Amino acid sequence: MGWHCPVCNGLTPLNRRCPRCGNAMEDQGRFSDLLADYSPYRPIDDMKRTDGLDDLHSHQCPHNLWCPHCGWSELHMVAEIPSGTSVHPGGGTPMVEPENHPE
Predict the structure, then answer these.
(1) Which residue ranges are recorded for the region named Disordered (predicted)?
(2) pTM of the predicted model, to two decimals?
(3) Residue 20 is part of a domain; what is its CATH number?
(4) Is 90 part of a structural domain of the chain?
């Protein structure tokens, strides 16, 4: 079974307030993407084996957060979800009405 980060995959937003000043923090992406030039192109589980964190076995995705107001930064661990798991109330996939396109 695979695991996926709901934040990286756009399923849920990462809304976090700065512990120093209380302003909204910005998600700068996965921590491992910042380690080296080609890090974003390596398989995620491969990066997790070498990033120095216990994120592979705990099924967490480390995100680098930054406060544009005061400059505070921190590592925030996002709980990953098993592949195929819904993050929407009631389960399932949200229905989106298709756009009407004239043929």
Answers:
(1) 83-103
(2) 0.70
(3) 2.20.25
(4) no
